[in-house]
Every structure is written in structure tokens, then in C-alpha cells.
Fold this protein.
Amino acid sequence: MSFVAHLINGISLGSVYALIALGYTMVYGIAKMLNFAHGDVIMIGGYVVFVTASGLGINPLAAIIVSMAACTVLGVTIERVAYRPLRGASPLAVLITAIGVSYLLQNVALLVFGSDTKAFSNVVTLPNLELFGGQLIIKSVTIVTVIVSIIIMVGLTFFVRKTKIGRAMTAVSEDQGAAQLMGINVNGTIAVTFAIGSSLAAVAGVLLCSAYPSLTPYTGSMPGIKAFVAAVFGGIGSIPGAFIGGILLGVIENLSKAYISSQLADAIVFSILIIVLLVKPTGLLGRKVLEKV
Amino acid sequence: MDMEIKGNKAKLSKTTMNDLVTYEMVILTYIVVQILVSTGHVSSLIQGLLVPFCTYVIVAVALNLTVGILGELSLGHAGFMCVGAFASAVFSLAFKDALPGGLRFFLALLIGAAAAALVGFLVGIPVLRLRGDYLAIVTLAFGEIIKNIINVLYLGVDSKGVHFSMKDALSLHLEEDGVMLIKGAQGVTGTPNDSNFTVGVILILVTLFIVLNFIHSRTGRAVMSIRDNRIAAESVGINVTKYKLIAFTVSASLAGVAGVLYAHNLSTLNALPKNFGYNMSIMILVFVVLGGIGNIRGSIIAAVLLTLLPEVLRGLSDYRMLIYSIVLIVMMIFNWSPNAIFFRKRLKQKFLPGRKAAKEEA
Amino acid sequence: MKKRMLSLVLAGVMTAALLTGCGGSAGTDAGSADGAAQESAETEETTDAAEETEAADEAAGDEAAAEDGAAQADGDSAGGTFKIGGIGPLTGSNAVYGIAAMNGSQIAVDEINAAGGINGMTVELNFQDDETDSEKSVNAYNALKDWGVQVIDGCVTSACSIAVSAKTAEDQIFQLTPSGSAVDCVATPNAFRVCFSDPNQGAASAQYIGDHSLATKVAVIYDSSDVYSSGIYEKFAAEAESQPFEVVTAGAFTADNKTDFSVQLQQAKDAGADLVFLPIYYNEAALILKQASDMGFSVKFFGCDGLDGILGVKNFDASLTEGVMLLTPFAADATDDLTVKFVTTYKEKFNETPNQFAADGYDAIYTIKAAAEKAGITADMSNEEICAAMQTAMTEITVDGLTGEGITWDASGEPTKEPKAVVIKDGVYTAM
């Protein structure tokens, strides 16, 4: 019974990672850059909901929409100001700039919202699911997170494969130069990618803070890194891979905490990541890229 | 300035010249700083920063070997630094009274470098089979694993020998006379302060000597050929794995040297996310990228400037880290943006028409 | 070329730093301005050394140095000034503790200055950020030395405090850490502390639980990557062997893994624990209480001083804390005059409920005042003289502070005070 409980808790944690990883993988897949600031956009999304819902007393659902809008604007602005000037430069230069943006967002939040922990009110007010006479409890926020992740996963896959903008994104991710020659607006397409990625970050922020209700300027950074690991685990760039990677990471983390060592949980998770990558060098669902001379 | 020296010693090749400029820069800086210190012109803050400057310069040069010369992205160099730091700190603490300072530090240095090299070698075997971002994430993972393990490591010595545990201090079962060397998260306390600026500068020069000679050696050229085109290199019979591993191990062991310097500068050593976590690995990468990938001199300057920057900004109190992050973004865009590079070239052509030919490298 | 561009950018930044610094940084004291100027001046020199001197930089340096001299001359007014330097994390994930200690110290300084200062000297407090990094902490200390610090109020965290105490011992500068609780923080003769030591808390908690028969099976959840938490846990586990209860599980977590505690709680539940001991800070404890309630695990919780502040978490459902017991020297809800006055001032000024770190910071300043008055410190004494006199005076004073009444110190640097056990009832602390 306790194994099942650990498993469910693992899925609960993993669903949050999955949700964040979807945004990561989306941006990586199209723009080919590791957006290290993604975790901090999540944190900003959380604060926006906190201020509007708990502070101004707006309906939580409306607050989420406000937060999505705010994060979309933020994401597009970051892309325009910090990343676009570096288009065509070394990918490492963009990576470092993303880290700079990450520090910037953290410090802005520290100045604006203060360093003290804010307790986030759970926006998922449905009752928890109790099984076996209360022996097993599945939190409603877990169920919602899993469902939202699946909806987003399916929606994104559909969007990328079927819509015109989505196909433009695929083209840009394959070859920016060729896409431009075909008349695709590369800058516009990447801006749309950031807009979508950032609005997903807002949703992830709300659900992350609902599941783990403490909000500080540094809330986003560690889940951000873990979600990045999850995205790599599943094959970075692959939308279903991000979901599976996230869930697996959460489950492995919780089971190794429970049955091996709670102190070494991180080391175990990372070891498994390394083993997976050695066996399958592009992650679980990653595409193998052929090299030409 | 570069030009004049170039004119005087035109016989030497361009690369040798460039290397000499780098050595000269370090030595000159050392002399000037020593003069300023002895005449009392250097504040305590800067005096305290001299050893950290050396530490970060060494580790930045070491990482540049991996990123710039080998062409692979490592996000785990703080982990190698951590191994070097802990291995040497434990040694120094254990032989604190048994050995004289100079000899002890020299041995600690060798131990730190060797330990980091060993770990680098072991990590390198599996890691270097991967490419690109996957390699980066695996090095990050190794760095975190190293930090995590050191945080639960308990090590003590008593009359019965060395005890170690991965659980807690109680399970060491030390005798009365036992001494704790590593106390888990509490780390190593009481390491002798053997680092100083002179030692640091000597180590920088040694590092430069190793790295620059490596780059110009047969091995170095083989490594760079792998970086530029792996398949072509393989097809002319270069053993890719071997050369990659050599470069990576050298890089790790130099990071270990930086760790030794770090450990012997402070009386307490903990493996925190701040100093040996991925944040630090990224910080080292920032030095390398800002200074110019593959540009050793650039790494040195960037490491010093970026270590100095947050300290200089102390007067801004609350806004310190905010300004720091903005400066970082602006510097990256200024240095790397294609438009900014174009703009700078045009400015140069306009104002310094005669100098543009010699200016490519600096 | 690249480096020249870099140096240009940096020169710009430093000039900006200078200007902002001199423009008077609101909130902190005037002292930090000339500190910044001096730093910049020195910095220019070394940067120049790296890339050949430029006339413009030279000029800026001279100007700054001149200003610095002027500012210092101005400072020596009637009774002189007494410069206290604080060090703690003001940014980074531990910023909440450093900022609280800084704010608490600032209130004490303002009160003391309003009442005529220490021995007629005006007190200046300059609080520097260390980002919870030992190396940055030493940098902060060196920056304070350039400012002309006479006494160190820091560091807020243990590892930093140990690193800095090695330097203060060398320089003979008196150091009082408000909240550095690891044993080694006061290993040097010039270092003292306000808070309890970790082993002291671990042992006291075990004895309290044992003496009051609060439980038979105890689970512990602690942060194995944190000096404070693992320090308490170790002593607790050692002491528990001689107590009438058993430690059934010890679930550790790390700084990188501190959002999900379901495993540790599940293990405690499965082991049939009737009390969970939490030697951790309130940020994580708040999550643990929430997750325990979510999984339907109702159990007694017992914590140390780090747990204080849990009621101050904005928007936190206080009903979850019902029945939580803690050994703490400070309670923001206490009704004695001193606490009420402090809490009111703090809320007015910073719009937050003070936590234990703020109280430690406040007490640290008053302890420095008491020792300085006992030792008869005057503005013209050198740091070595101040240090020697304060070291002796510390063992002779008795301080009634927020974190205890009649606190005394011995030469080892440890305070003697009684921890108060409180239980949270209806959202307020109640004595047990």
C-alpha cells in the first residue's frame, strides 16, 4: 500500500515537472535555445496570480488568464530585447544571456515582492479523491495537473502538426535559412513560440504553486532545472517526450527517496538520467539526427 | 600595444606572440598589484579578492580548454573544483601539524589535481560519447551527483584508522581521540590558509603553460581537428575518444587545482549549491563565453572582471544583483550580437583605419 | 579589441556605482556611500594594472579618493561614531533570514541613536550581502574593513560565520553573530553568539520530548545539506538514545529537493510515529504541514527556533499550525513590553511580522551596546583595543533581550539562556 502511495506522490510531483518541461521543450524544439529563464517566468506567473487572486480578490480563473497574458507579454518582451539581437550568434551566447535574464527576473521579484515566503492559495478547490476508505488520497490538484498536461501535450502536438503557424514552426526548427527563403517570417514565428511557451509557464506556475504552496523569488529555479532534465530525459524537442520524461522523473525521484536514500535522491535521479542517455543518446523519444560529412 | 611588440619581435610566429602577450599580461599585473599593495594603495576588499581572482582565472582557462578547444559544453566544472577542494582540504587538515606549510600545500595541490583528474577521467569515459546539449546535461548531472555525495560524506580518523560513513556522524564510531575530517553538510572546517596571491599567480602561469602548450602540441591539434570536423578527423585515423579524454582530463585536473586554491583560502569548506552547484558551473561558463570561446586571454580578463563586478556594485545595496544581471545581458549582446559586431567593425574602420588588420585576435 | 570594449562597459558601470553611491542610498546609512567610492577607486587601479593605465580612469580614482577623505573627516563629530558592520544574505534563497537580521539590527541602532548612542558615540550600521557564500562573506567583511568597521554583527548563517571568524581573529576585530549556530562559529576567542548552538538545541529538544512524555515514536525530517539542520539532528539522535522514546525514521532532504516531502511523511506515517521533529526553517515546515494535512496524517509536530516565523507566512492557513510545539527563544506574539514595542515598530517600518532572525539581530546590537558600555569603548580606540576590551566585557554583562532574559556569556562565546517551549493554539503562541 505504501508503495502505491509513493507512486501516486511521484506522479503528483512528476506532473508538475511534465507541465514545465512542455514549455521548455517547445522553445528548445523551435528556437534551438535553452531558455534558462523559463523557471523564472513560472515564478512571475505565480506572483501575478498571488497578487490578483489573494491580493485583489479576483476570481482565481480570471487571475490565471491575467497571469497568462502577463507572462505572454513578458516572454515576448524577453525574446525581443534579449534573445533576438543574438540571433545568428553562438548558441552559448544565447544560453548565457538567458541566465542573465533569469538573474534579472529573480532580483526584480526580490525587490518588488520581498524575500519572505508567500503561501499560495490552491486554485483547485475540488475535493481530494479518497480510495480504500481514506488509506490512499489522490490530491485534486494532481488530477488537474495531469489532465492539463495531457490537454496541453495533445493540443501542442495538434497545433504544431496541423496549423499553418505550427508548420512554420517545424520549418524554422529544421532550417531557419531555408524557412526564410520559403517566405516564412522567422522572427515572427519564434516570437509566437515564446508567447505560447510563456503562457504555458503561467499555467505551470499556478499549478506548481497550488501543489507546493510556497512562493519566493527563487521558487522557479529548481523545478526549472528539474524540468529541463525531464525534457532531456524524454528527448528534448519532443512534446510527448517531455510529458513522459517529467512523470518518470517524479516517480523515480520519489521511489529512490523512499527505498534507497532520501539524502541521495538527487544523485540517483541524475545517475539514471546518465544511464538512459548512454543507452539512448537522444533521450527516450528523441529523434536521431544523422550526420553528414 | 599589441602592435608594437609584434613589430619588435616579428620573427616569432603570431601564436607564440599572442601567448607571450598573455604571460606578460599576468606577470605585469602581478608586479603592479604587488607594488600597489606594498605602498598601501589597495583596499582590503581587493586584497581579499586577489586569491579568488586566481581561482576563477584558473578554472575559466581550464573550462576554455573543454569548451573552446575540445568544442564540448561542460556544465560540471564546479564539480571537479569541488573534488579538488575536498581532497586537498582533507589532506591538509589531516597533516596540519605533521608537515611544514609549503610542502603540505604542494602535496595538497598534487592530490587535488590528481583526484579531480581521476574523476574527470571516469566521468569522461561515458560522457564524451554524447554530443551537444546531451553532453552538457550529463556533465551538469555529474556535478550535482558529486555535490550531493560530498554533502552526505562523513570521514574521521582515530587511533584505529580511517572511518567513513554516508549516513551520519554517529555511525563513524570514532574513539575519544578521533578527529572528524568531513562532517557531511558541515563540510571541512579548519583548513590551513595556505593560498596567497603569489601562489595563485604561479598556478595561473603553470596553468597557462600547460594549456597553451597543449593547444600547440600535436595532441592539441588533433583535439581541434575533432572539434572542427569529427567525421573528417576520424577518417584520417585520429583516435577521437582518446584525444577527447585527454583534453577533458587535463581540463578537469586544472579545475581541481582551482579547487585547491579555493579550499586553502577559506577556513571552512562546504559543498553548497552556491559554490559548487550548477550555478557555479554556469558562472564559469559565463567567464569563458564573455571572454570569447577559445580565447584564453579573454577568459582571464572576463573572470577577473565578473568576479570584481558584484563587489564593486556593493554601494548600490538593494539594486546590486539587479544591475549585475543587466550588465551581464548588455555585455553579452554587445559582445556577441551580429549587429553589434558589425557596428563595431564600422566604427573601427572609421576611426582607426590603420589598425584594423592587426586587430582580429584581441 | 574585445577587452577594451569590456573595460569601457565596466568603467561605465563603476562610474554609475559611484554616482548612485554618492547620491545617498536611501534606507542605508551615509557610510556605505564613501565605502562604495573607495572600493571603486581601488578597483580602478587594479583594473588599470591589467590593461595599462588610462588617464580618464586615473582622474576618476583621484576624485573618488578625495571624496572619501572628505567624508571621513565629516564623520568625526562630537562623540565620534561607532561603526558596526553586518554581514548576511540579502539576495539568494536565504535572503529572508539576512534581511530580517538586518532590519532587526537597524531598529536597535535607530533606538540607540535616538537615546544618545553608545558612550556618546553615534552608531552606524553597514549591512553587506554575502549571498550565503563563504567567499562572498569574506569579501563583504573586507569591504566593511575598508569602510572602517569596528565591530562585526554577523554573519547570519553558520558557514559564512566560520569563514569570517577566521579573518576577524587574525585582524583582532570583535565579532558577534546573531544567528550563526554551528559549534565552530565561536571557536575563536573574539567570536560570540546570540542564538543557541545547534547541539544545545538538539539535546534540549530531545530532553524536552522525553521529560514531558510527548511521544514514544519520533520521526525526524531534516535538511541534510544544511549545517543548522544536520547539526541539530545529529545531537538529537545521540541524545535520544538515553531518552524514553525511539527515533523510528529520519527522513532527510536537500536544498535541491525541498518542495516535495510526501515520501518522508509517508515513511513517518508507516512507521507509526506519533511525533515528527522538524529541526528546519519555517519555509519548508509550512510545506510539510500542508502536505501532512493533505495526506490525512495527523500527528504532533515539534520544532526548534527555525520554525518561528511560520505564523508570519503571508496567506498561510494558520489552522494547519494548530498544536505545533516549538522550542524558541523568541515569540512575536509575546505580550511583554519589549517584544510588543519591537514587533509594532518592525511592522510599521517593514510591513512584516518579525521572525527569530530579526530578534537575534536586535539583541545582537543591544549586546554590543552593553559590552561596549561595560568596556568603556571610545571612538579613538583601535580595533585591537576594542576587541580585547569587548572580549572581557562580554563575560561580565547580563542582557535582557527579545530572545531571553538575563542572558550571560562565558569566554567560549556561548550564551546561557533558557529556551521557551510554546505551543500554537488558535493561531497564537501559548506557553507550555
Q: What stands out?
A: The interface with chain C takes residues 2, 5-6, 9, 12-13, 50, 54, 107, 110, 114-121, 128, 134, 137, 139, 212-214, 216-218, 222-223, 253-254, 257-258, 262-263, 265-266 of chain A (CB under 8 Å). DSSP finds eleven helices and four strands in chain A.
